[in-house]
Backbone:
């Protein structure tokens, strides 16, 4: 299915957020995630199911003022 | 001073816009700052270098909600920041307009209320408006961060009388001047007026020599605070001889 990851459309075979991170080679310890505008805590990655057209923001620490 | 944390330094430094991670690191060292601000973004090419820098620095992290325009965006960003940086601190910015980067006070108060109730320790980026300040305290904020001038403008304290009134009104509330400071003299002025600290970024990051400018701001902020503690003299309209008249020779 297709989902939106950080503004890009990607094709994924993952059913859960945890699987998507493995597939996309994202280290879950270095990011925080929101699904369709809602924060998803790390403890829910394994159980959080993805649906087609889900909008994911997977964010990292960056410089800021 | 700031939610049970009392830093030695009254200088809070932003981490954005430096020529390189190495210069950022040196500038943080030169600033003496114990609190640095960071953000959350989609990871770019420098993400790995910044992560390892944060691990090396033994600083308090104050994540921001920069770029958020709605309550929802700010609250979600704060929740993400709390997990990622393992801190209840959040520099709450809810921007009202992209050109002025002026805080939206209505959304700011609402977001502050939600976040304080959820256990966050909120540092709200606000204006010098006293009523907005009162509402933020009612919402649970224990620090206020009035702007000096619009973010990145370097104009210094644009409404000195308004800020003076704010300082007097919120006698026992820690107040940090956040944004708009362009020169060390402006930071010293804020400290001389009795503000508790200064938060800035661009004035250091965009200096020709950011490391040296970080040191200059550190000295100015320290000097301004010392001057406030020492008690400034009253201004007078007319001159007043400092050398005694008594004992003056008669020629």
Residues:
């Amino acid at each position: 299915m297709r989902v939106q990851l950080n503004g890009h459309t990607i094709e994924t075979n993952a059913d859960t957020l945890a699987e998507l991170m493995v597939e996309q080679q994202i280290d879950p310890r270095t990011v925080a995630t929101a699904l369709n505008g809602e924060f998803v805590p790390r403890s829910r990655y394994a159980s959080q199911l993805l649906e087609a057209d889900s909008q994911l923001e997977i964010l990292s620490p960056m410089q800021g003022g | 001073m700031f939610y049970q944390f009392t830093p030695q330094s009254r200088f809070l430094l932003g981490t954005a816009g430096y020529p390189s991670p190495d210069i950022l690191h040196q500038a943080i060292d030169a600033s003496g700052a114990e609190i640095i601000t960071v953000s959350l973004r989609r990871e770019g090419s420098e993400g790995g270098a910044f992560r390892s820098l944060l691990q090396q620095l033994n600083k308090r992290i104050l994540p921001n909600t920069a770029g958020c325009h709605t309550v929802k965006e700010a609250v979600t960003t704060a929740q993400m920041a709390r997990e990622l940086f393992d801190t209840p601190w959040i520099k709450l910015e809810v921007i009202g307009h992209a050109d002025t980067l002026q805080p939206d006070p209505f959304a700011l108060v609402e977001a502050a209320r939600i976040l304080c109730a959820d256990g966050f320790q909120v540092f709200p980026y606000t204006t010098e408006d006293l009523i907005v300040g009162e509402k933020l305290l009612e919402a649970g904020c224990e620090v206020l961060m009035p702007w000096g001038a619009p973010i990145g403008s370097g104009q210094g304290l644009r409404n000195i009388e308004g800020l003076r009134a704010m300082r007097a009104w919120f006698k026992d509330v820690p107040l940090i001047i956040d944004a708009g400071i362009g020169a060390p003299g402006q930071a010293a002025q804020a400290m001389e007026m009795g503000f508790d600290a200064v938060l800035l970024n661009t004035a250091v990051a965009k200096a020709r020599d950011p490391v040296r400018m970080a040191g200059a701001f550190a000295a100015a902020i320290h000097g301004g605070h010392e001057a406030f503690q020492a008690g400034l003299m009253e201004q007078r309209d007319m001159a007043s001889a400092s050398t005694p008249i008594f004992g003056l020779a008669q020629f």
User: Anything to note?
Assistant: Chain A touches chain B at residues 6-7, 30-34, 37-39, 41-42, 57-65 (CB under 8 Å). The two ends of chain A are 38 Å apart (CA to CA). DSSP finds one helix and five strands in chain A. The longest helix of chain A spans residues 17-23.
